[in-house]
DNA sequence: AAGTACTCCAACCGCGACGGA
DNA sequence: TTCCGTCGCGGTTGGAGTACT
């Protein structure tokens, strides 16, 4: 899982390090230190650039470097630090003895990033499901609490929020397919519980499927049903509370990675 | 068994910061 | 003050190993 060794036009070796090279580098640094990385490879008898030597030492050959899997404790530290610091890998490495910044960065990208995002989404779904008077329901459950939207203009705002921040908004081919408008829906006059069915048209959120913490798939149906956006009915009488609009924003910006 | 797709991580690259002349 | 060399950081890539078809 390493680059094949090769030489560039200056005779500098690149690619994977051999055991012999490792030994030369380790032995030199243990005796003379590494005050000048540029000169080091010449003095150590290595056909490598200083940068490559430094990287090899920092990421692999330093004393007390840990090899192997990260522990749960280490992962927790990384997640916590990333929350605070962002992509400051070298700073994180100072908090994790025996781990290099490169190692932490790789582990984040291959294991932790998606895990954290998934956890956050589950949390948001849980928060969303506790909202009143709206109640999210699993796919297939058509009984939803009727929403209270006052005017078609309010619905227009909702739709604008949903469509303007869609994940595919930068993709002209997909964003141009957002064809939902208020006129697609009728204003209900009675209190009948709405029955949901997929709206006509090609909405970006048609493709949005979000697993909840019970493994239930939440789809565009679920996203819409709390707001009563159905083929048959949509609008009622009171205004859209700010906290609901906040959550509409939140939902509209959830990525499609799941 | 063979071909293809995906994962993972060591190594590379480019750039900004810093210090010395 | 400017220039130059070096270092260190974060993003990206290459490709071996593994899983899947």
Automatic annotation (TrEMBL):
GO CC annotations, alphabetized: nucleus
SUPFAM superfamilies, A to Z: Homeodomain-like (SSF46689)
Ranges of residues in domain Myb-like: 9-61, 62-112
Keyword line: DNA-binding, Nucleus, Repeat
Subcellular locations according to the entry: Nucleus
GO molecular function: DNA binding
InterPro entries: Homeodomain-like_sf, Myb_dom, Myb_TF_plants, SANT/Myb
A Pfam family recorded for this sequence: Myb_DNA-binding
Top-level lineage group: Eukaryota
Residue ranges of every copy of the HTH myb-type domain listed in the record: 9-61, 62-116
CDD domains documented for this protein: SANT
PANTHER family: MYB FAMILY TRANSCRIPTION FACTOR (PTHR10641), MYB-RELATED PROTEIN MYB4-LIKE (PTHR10641:SF1377)
Name assigned to this protein: Uncharacterized protein
Organism of provenance: Lactuca virosa
């Amino acid at each position: 899982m390493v680059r094949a060794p090769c030489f560039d036009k200056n005779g500098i070796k690149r690619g994977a390090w051999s055991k012999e090279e490792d030994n030369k580098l380790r032995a030199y640094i243990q005796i003379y230190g590494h005050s000048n990385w540029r000169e080091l490879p010449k003095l150590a008898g290595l056909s490598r650039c200083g940068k490559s030597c430094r990287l090899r030492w920092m990421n692999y050959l330093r004393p007390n470097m840990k090899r192997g899997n990260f522990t749960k404790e280490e992962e927790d530290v990384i997640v916590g630090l990333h929350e605070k610091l962002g992509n400051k890998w070298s700073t994180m490495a100072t908090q994790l003895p025996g781990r290099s910044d490169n190692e932490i960065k790789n582990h984040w990208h291959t294991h932790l990033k998606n895990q954290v995002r998934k956890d956050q989404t589950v949390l948001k779904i849980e928060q969303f499901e506790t909202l009143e008077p709206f109640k999210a329901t699993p796919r297939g459950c058509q009984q939803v609490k009727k929403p209270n939207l006052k005017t078609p203009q309010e619905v227009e705002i909702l739709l604008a929020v949903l469509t303007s921040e869609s994940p595919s908004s930068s993709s002209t081919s997909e964003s141009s397919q957002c064809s939902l408008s208020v006129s697609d829906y009728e204003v209900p006059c009675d209190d009948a519980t709405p029955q949901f069915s997929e709206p006509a048209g090609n909405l970006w959120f048609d493709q949005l499927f979000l697993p909840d913490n019970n493994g239930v798939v939440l789809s565009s149906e679920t996203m819409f049903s709390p707001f009563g956006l159905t083929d048959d009915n949509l609008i009622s009488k009171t205004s859209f509370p700010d906290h609901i609009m906040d959550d509409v924003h939140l939902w509209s910006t959830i990525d499609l990675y799941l």
